[in-house]
Write a structure and sequence with these properties.
Aminopeptidase; 3 domains; eight-stranded mixed β-sheet; 409 residues; globular; alpha+beta; seven-stranded mixed β-sheet; binds coenzyme A; Nonspecific Lipid-transfer Protein, Chain A
Amino acid sequence: MTIRDFIEKDFQEIKRTWEEIGWLDPKEDREIFKLFVESSKILVGEVNGEVEASVFNIPGDINYNGIKLPLHAVAAVTTSRIARKRGLAGRMTALSLAREANNGKSIAGLGMFEQGYYNLLGFGTGPYEHELSFDPADLKVPKSTRMPCRLGSKDAEEIHKNRLNRFPKHGAVNLFPPQTTRADLAYKDSGFGLGFRDEETGELTHHFWVSPEDVEHGPYNVIWVVFRENKQFLELLSLLRDLGDQVNLVRLNEPAGVQFQDLLKQPFKRSRISRKGKFEVKNRAVAYWQLRILNLEECIKNTHLPFNEVSFNLELHDPVKEFLPPEENWQGIGGEYHLTIGGESVLKKGLDKSLPTLKASAGAFTRMWMGAVPASGLALTDELSAPEELLAELDKTFLMPKPRIDWDF
Ligand SMILES: CC(C)(COP(=O)(O)OP(=O)(O)OC[C@H]1O[C@@H](n2cnc3c(N)ncnc32)[C@H](O)[C@@H]1OP(=O)(O)O)[C@@H](O)C(=O)NCCC(=O)NCCS
């Protein structure tokens, strides 16, 4: 088995795998696959001269409490039917992490197919995302009188730009290649966008993109809502409400910092009435994305948490090491450190005997550092342990909004 960079001739063999796993319909010549290939740095795994596994990697950034850190997005990991369970996907993903850590990326992220697999590579699960399903006619928002604009594939460039310039909240991810947005727009022929432009400059200022399950009556899945100001968000919701005479159900991921239920009329009654139906009104919570720190020093240097200050030893275990060849320069972030977290944070190598010790896996530490789950909770459910007093201090220190990636990949 050889792991190497993608070359042009691999296109058809990767496509064959994507068809085998049900991501592409062999009958369709989907532009979307070409766009994925164009947007990604790809590693392939060759067995007997043919590509049987691949890992797609996309550059981007992630907002950590107001600071943008370079992100390595692991966008698609696949192994063909004949090459499963030979360790190909694990080793290739680990190698992509090592390469991108060496290329200056601070964090890696992915959408997981199941809990547990990427934990073996040092990833930790993000917080629950709330997917709200509601009747758009039930939205309690002021009526907008402005005329919206239609958006489609032809507007991909400005849609991408608008996404990159949206309001930056903690955890928000940007994927840089414009092909990623073009691929999202190409996902479904019936997809459409609506938005608003600046009346003077004509610039697209806020919009949403919808992928309807049934164009006539819904459900309509809102893939993203992009805005910079609160009033823009309400204006977009007003547009959704105006579709409510015809469309029975809209689904969207709750935006950061908003309790969406506040904007709905009689949510409990609607939920009772629609239970188990095609247009069921509900709020579904699911934690489906994961992150891991690639560069501990950079991440700690950029940690500014002014509410408390805590100093401790860190014994960090990084399981990714098991998947990497010993000659690889980056071997994960495992090791012994002592650090201070607070308004200014500092990381130093080695232990300091005078300090209490936190023991954690790379994934559990990432979860605490991102503010996804408090240290005391991780001590119950994940690979993290420390004396009670230190856990309490860590809980008081990592006070930040729940991270929301706000860009699925
Ligand atoms: C996911 C996928 C890429 C794994 O490919 P692979 O090359 O078979 O993976 P590896 O050989 O590296 O790892 C398989 C091992 O992980 C284990 N594993 C799988 N899911 C796991 C989980 N949730 N938790 C812990 N271990 C898990 C398997 O049991 C197996 O271990 P074993 O060999 O000891 O039985 C492959 O199944 C695939 O292409 N699936 C369809 C596409 C997909 O969902 N991709 C992931 C997108 S995020």
